[in-house]
Amino acid sequence: MHRILSIVLVAASFYGGTVWAYEEMTAADGGMVRGTVRLEGQVPKPKGYNLTTLPDQVYCGRISDGQGWRLLQPFNVGPAGEFRDVVIYIEGIEKGRSVASAFTSPRIEARDCRFVPFTTIVREKENVVVVNMDPVMHDIQAYESSQLGARVLFNVPLPMNPQHPRDLKDRSNAAMYHKHLAGEPMKQRLGMSKGRRVFVMQCGFHAYMESWGLAMENPYYAITDQDGGFEISDIPPGTYKLVVWHPYIGGAREQLITIAPKGRTAMDITIPAPVGRLYANQMVDRPYTRFAVTNEVQSQIVPTLIRQER
Questions:
Q1: Of 5, 106, 207, 210, which has fewest CB within 10 angstroms of its CB?
Q2: Distance between CA 142 and CA 152 in Å, rounded?
Q3: Is the Cβ–Cβ distance between 205 and 56 less than 8 Å?
Q4: Listed residue (254, 154, 249) closest to 204, CA to CA
Q5: What's the order of all strands across the beta sheet hosting 221-223?
Q6: Alpha helices, DSSP H only, in the chain?
Q7: Could you read off the pLDDT tens digit of each residue along the chain, which spans 310 residues?
Q8: Burial of 177 (0-12, 13-18, 19+ CB in 10 A)
Q9: Exposed (0-12), middle (13-18) or buried (19+): which is 300, by Cβ within 10 Å?
């Protein structure tokens, strides 16, 4: 818990901004902004977790580095710097298209001991739906940011589908098990504090399972795709603040944008890659472990699904 609380506290200082009253109307002469986001520089190292110290290491170790470590890379970056899972949104729009046209309650899946997707859009007083697709138990711990620290939004168990086998400790069974049967969906209504936007969720059993959300006040937002691309349409003409957000770039990046009536604006955004140590459990070349783990125990963890690169 301490690890995720420290992350939320870092994020908290950036998201206590203006809350806009929003009115729905037809924007007949709305414009569009389309562009790409790229990360410039060396992609930061991932987080590293010694699987032998956490539950379900054989099943969850199907995604690992072959040496008993599970990696979490918060930066989803393509070969040409395409920065994926980045939120782009526009502040200051007080009137525009309906919120329902752009927003659906997010569904987050626990799949292969990962929360998918890594980044979502959430909305105050709406449900977040979390579904366990794995044959192991998960526990949802969700927080929001606050000037006084992190505040728990909810902490509930995430049951697995009863059709899954109950015992996958045997290496051969766990390594070959690829069925994803949905457990009972857990719906949690968000009750975030006024002015707070950051939502973060972690599994209480498997610390490498992490998902982030950003609460929106209007429907003018996008999340970058596999090419780092984004598009926001039907924007009422005017000058606004365009914001680029990712939980690990050290704060939101802002710039002014002017939308002409029925205009099309192109934007190519470059984000400098953060440098230095970004998290306490950053993976290193020769990871130190304080636990006495035998080679025999570690050999049970076989990356049959994905072999991760450090």
A1: 5
A2: 6
A3: yes
A4: 154
A5: 221-223, 87-91, 238-245, 253-259
A6: 2-12, 57-60, 171-176, 295-298
A7: 434 434 443 444 444 444 446 777 777 789 999 999 999 999 999 999 999 899 999 999 999 999 899 999 999 999 999 999 999 999 988 888 877 777 778 899 999 999 999 999 988 778 899 999 999 999 999 998 755 677 888 899 999 999 988 777 666 777 777 889 999 999 988 887 777 888 899 999 999 999 999 988 889 999 999 999 999 999 999 999 999 999 999 888 999 999 999 999 999 999 999 999 999 899 887 776 656 667 777 788 889 999 998 8
A8: middle
A9: middle
Helix (H, G, I), strand (E, B) or coil at 149: coil
* Three state DSSP letters for 55-121: CCHHHHCCEECCCCEEEECCCCECCCCEECCCEEEEECCCEECCHHHCCCCCEEEEECCEEECCEEE
Q: What are phi and psi of 48, to 5 degrees?
A: -125, 135
Global pTM reads 0.86
Q: Is the dihedral of CA 269, 274, 279, 283 positive or negative?
A: positive
Q: Is the dihedral of CA 74, 242, 9, 206 positive or negative?
A: negative
**How many C-beta neighbours within 10 Å does residue 10 have?**
17
Angle at 118 between CA 115 and CA 123, to 5 degrees: 100
Per the CB < 8 A criterion, the answer to whether 301 and 61 are in contact is yes
Instruction: Tell me how crowded residue 50 is: count the other CB atoms within 10 A of its CB.
Output: 20
**Phi and psi at residue 262, to the nearest 5°:** 55, 25
Amino acid in position 173: N
C-alpha distance across the termini of the chain, in Å = 24
Rounded to whole angstroms, the Cα distance separating 241 from 2 reads 34
What is the DSSP code (8-state) at residue 302?
A: -
Structural tokens at position 188: 């949690």
